[in-house]
Amino acid sequence: MRQELVWDLRALDAAGLVTDERVAQAGVTLSVAGLYPSLHLNVGECYRKLGDLGRAHEHLQHARDTIGALGDDAYGQLIKGGLERPAQQLTSE
Residues 44, 59: contact at Cβ < 8 Å? Predict the structure, then answer.
């Protein structure tokens, strides 16, 4: 799980170095802002599984704060739905 967290944190850091133009060149239809909800969701879930509930809450809040960058398409619905499960798990832990 720690290796997954390291990878997810690297991806989150790398997103800050990417432009919308570069994302489009890679064939991704999202803007860079649309990457953040998923990235924070993944990091928050890793922290939750590792027992660091404070950091898990922090990243899930970042995911919620950036969720507006997603459309109402299948991907947006997937991430929005994925955000509900860890939030429920954190409130029960």
Answer: yes
Assign 17 to helix, strand or coil. Answer: coil
Q: CA 56 to CA 58: how far, in whole Å?
A: 5
Q: Quote the CA–CA distance of 83 and 93 in Å, as a whole number.
A: 16
Q: What angle do CA 40, 46, 51 make, to 5 degrees?
A: 125
pLDDT for the residue 30: 87
pLDDT, tens digit, 9 for 90 and up, residues 21-73: 999 999 988 899 999 999 999 999 999 999 999 999 999 999 999 999 998 89
Q: Quote the CA–CA distance of 75 and 8 in Å, as a whole number.
A: 19
